[in-house]
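hey m, so remember when u said the tokens were messed up on ur end? i reran from scratch. heres the input so u can diff it against urs
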Amino acid sequence: MADAVTSQTIVDGDRNCVMKFTNVSDGTGESAVAKVDVSALSANSEGTACSGVKIVRVSHAIVGMSVQLFFNANTNVLIMELAESSNGHMDYSDFGGIPNNAGTGKNGDVLFTTKGASNGDTYSITLEMIKTY
């Protein structure tokens, strides 16, 4: 069996992207799963493909496990860890969002890894992002 997960794109415009992710764990957990696949996001009005995102806001509700967010690269770069059994809202809009600072091999994607997942643990995470080209 596997965790029951969903990904929902709420906004995918020229500049902004909003996505919501949920997980109901069976204890399996997730390891470096691509949640924001920038190659699947729409191109801008000039036809330029999205190459990355800056994270502007994060809203989360987590029961039981913790969730790490990474920028994908040859060596993934930790963006943040959302604490076990927590909820909150982080706003990075004052300085334009958290840019992708991953090095060699970065492709712009955002990955999730769960830690300490047990049967029945859950998360709901919403990311508000600015697309980069």
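this time it looks ok to me. The mean pLDDT is 97. if urs says something different then somethings off w ur setup not the seq
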